[in-house]
Amino acid sequence: MTIRSARPGDADFIARTILSSQRGYRPRGWFDVALGWPEAQCLDFIARVSTARAVSMWHVSQFLVAEVDGEPAAALCAVPAAGTGPAAWRAIEEVGIATGLAASELDSIRQRGAYSRVCWVQGGEGDWMIEHVATDPAYRGRGLVQALIAYALDKGRKAGFARATISFLIGNEPAERAYAKAGFVFAEEKRDPAFEAIIGAPGFRMFVRAI
Question: CA 63: distance to chain centroid?
Fold first, then answer.
């Protein structure tokens, strides 16, 4: 196994990582709902977002990749928590305009994606945020997530951060076990019936740990 920074050529793998991690244990995640498109079209859009000029938490430059025998097998993003929301929307707008979406459709994407705001929990100013953690099913059970998290925590420590956060869907027990194994503990959760009606999970839970 080798851990490295993601590159533009990883865009398709990063897109699959983002979509898979957002879905968690449910069939749909944020991009599925917000875009409202078939999976292939969603993946193409996310891949474009991952290499957009606007750098967001979805950008390849923010991801670490674990390779096995030279093939991408798992990934996560690790970024300062501050300002991630506005940056994400700038990337969506850039790609939307570049691919010919009308302003009305961009507005519809924003409205469809707003369901998550009521129960989204993430780190605040001064926190190092780990998100979008996923492993290709063919490579699960090899400790790739633990290795990636350890690498990401070290990166945050070297950047001067003292606390790391990680969020996941309530009910995603494999994720909860993995993050607890990595030293994270419960900090906060938010639940919302409307969110659950759309996704099928009660809301989000956030774990934290000192680094």
Answer: 10
Using DSSP, state whether 128 is helix, strand or coil: strand
Buried b (16+ CB within 10 A) or exposed e, 55-85: ebbbbbebbbbbbeeeebbbbbbbbbbeebe
**Cα distance between residue 162 and residue 211, in whole Å:** 5
In terms of pTM, does the model score above 0.90? yes
Please state the φ and ψ torsions of residue 118, each to the nearest 5 degrees.
-70, -25
Residue 151 and residue 3: Cα distance in Å, rounded?
8
Neighbours of 133 (CB within 10 A): 25
Alpha carbon separation from 114 to 36, 109, 124, 139 (Å, rounded): 13, 9, 19, 33
Amino acid letter, residue 11: A
| Alpha-carbon gap, residue 82 to 108, rounded angstroms | 25
- The structural domains of the chain, ordered by start, are 2-210 (3.40.630.30)
User: Is the CB of residue 113 less than 8 Å from the CB of residue 198?
Assistant: no
- Tokens describing residue 189: 């959760």
pLDDT tens-digit readout, 67-123: 999 999 999 999 999 988 899 999 999 999 999 999 999 999 999 999 999 999 988
pLDDT tens per residue, range 126-151 = 999 999 999 999 999 999 999 999 99
Q: In what order do the strands lie in the sheet with 203-210?
A: 2-5, 63-68, 71-80, 128-135, 163-169, 203-210, 185-191
3-state class (DSSP) for residue 102: coil
